[in-house]
Amino acid sequence: MALTTGIITNTGTTPASNIVINIDNDNLSFSSNVVYHIYVWNSLASKSLVYVNSLNINANTSQILNFNIAGNFAYEVQLLVTGQVPTDTVINVFGTDSSGNVIHYQKVLQQQLTQIAQLNP
């Protein structure tokens, strides 16, 4: 099952300079695999894939990832979680300012992610 934050506008008085992705595998026995794609828009119509990777998240462990997106008009994070029990892997995405403070209107919690058919290329 692929998930997306949708397009998050990154303008206003406090635009995000970074994206933080928190990944927590709460399963006590099985690892999970997480593939992520991060896209940015540097104008209203120009979507670019800037980060892509696949991670193995061991049972009962977490990963906190940080990506620079400073200067972009918008961004989107797409995720694909696979494994024995993918629903035990909880992912939250936050936009943060240059001081590392969470921008609350750029916070996407697990239950707010939208299911999509597949990751975009």
Quaternary organisation: single chain
**Amino- and carboxy-terminal Cα gap:** 15 Å
Mean pLDDT: 96
Shape: globular
Secondary structure class reads: mainly beta
Beta-strand residue fraction: over 45%
SSE order, one letter for each helix or strand: EEEEEEEEEE
Rg calculated over all Cα atoms: 14 Å
Kindly state the percentage of residues in helix: under 10%
Please outline the major beta sheet.
Answer: 6 strands, antiparallel
**Low-pLDDT residue spans:** none
- Report the strand count: 10
Number of helices: 0
Key descriptive features of the protein:
single chain, mainly beta, 10 strands, globular
Describe the structure.
This protein is mainly beta and 121 residues long. The protein contains no helices and ten strands. Strands 1, 2, 4, 5, 7 and 10 form a six-stranded antiparallel beta sheet that branches. A four-stranded antiparallel beta sheet has the order 6-3-8-9, with no helix packed on it. The radius of gyration is 14 Å and the shape is globular.
